[in-house]
Design a protein that fits this description.
By secondary structure, the chain is mainly alpha-helical. It has one domain. It has ten helices and no strands. α3 packs across α7. The protein is globular.
């Protein structure tokens, strides 16, 4: 009898281990995929380019522009990481069910569809970017910045303005982590997410500092590739949502 009990327990442990392994195999690509969607978001690019262009136009100090770009990126990272921890903690405490996971999966698909809409019908209906009425206010705030300290402080304000165009993938991942992960592992995934999200800002800052391109050239490229970026983001988010639904159907949760 003890033999059968041990055998059953071993199989149960093995089943749960395999289930956890499959869940991890889903979580890592999901976090990376959603972070890439946020990272290629044209909103953050535009703000950073305007900031660096403003500083260079005032005294053409490349070192100051470099430090300002890093300071701005750091404040965006801190803001998003802290907001993520706060929302993740709230969702974790709420003890969410599979129904919420289903809602988050559908949200991912909806965000994806709106991004694809922006590829075909840009500017019509709900736009997955900063609202047009907010943009003059952001530009006015950025134009007043002349130092890395100012860039760091303005980053916290800008992070709020960026929420309409960057929060979709973030909320999806926070919901996924709240349902599937422990608090500690969830925080680590959030750290990974935000590091990926931040990486293009660091690259853009370094490229401009090294003189490999100009802010005007980057802005022109951003505008030219704007619709394509929305299409890529849309496809990734739809695949993410569909993958989450499939994982739910297969019992990987």
């Amino acid at each position: 009898m003890d033999f059968y009990n041990r055998s059953f327990n071993d199989k149960y442990i093995l089943f749960n281990y395999q289930k956890m392994s499959m869940a991890a195999e889903l979580t890592i690509p999901a976090v990376i995929g959603a972070a890439v969607v946020d990272a290629i978001n044209p909103c953050a690019f535009a703000v950073l380019i305007i900031l660096i262009a403003t500083i260079l136009a005032k005294d053409y100090d490349r070192k100051k522009a470099l430090l300002s770009g890093f300071a701005f990126s750091a404040s965006i990272f801190i803001s998003y990481f802290l907001m993520g921890i706060g929302l993740f903690t709230a969702l974790e405490t709420a003890g969410l069910s599979r129904k919420f996971y289903f809602v988050v999966s559908i949200l991912a698909i909806i965000v994806g569809l709106f991004n694809i809409k922006d590829y075909f019908w840009y500017g019509k209906g709900l736009l997955m970017e900063v609202p047009l009425t907010w943009r003059p206010k952001i530009k006015k705030a950025i134009n007043s910045i002349t130092t890395p300290t100012g860039a760091f402080l303005i980053g916290f304000l800008v992070s709020i303005f960026l929420l309409p165009c960057t929060s979709g993938p973030y909320v999806v991942i926070l919901g996924l982590l709240a349902v599937k992960e422990s608090y500690f592992s969830g925080i680590l995934y959030l750290l990974l997410y935000n590091m990926i999200f931040l990486s293009p800002m660091i690259i853009i800052t370094l490229v401009i500092y090294k003189g490999l391109t100009t802010t005007d050239a980057l802005e022109n490229m951003r505008k030219k590739k704007l619709k394509l970026l929305h299409l890529i983001a849309g496809i990734i988010m739809i695949l993410l949502g569909a993958g989450m639904l499939l994982a739910m159907h297969l019992g990987m949760l």
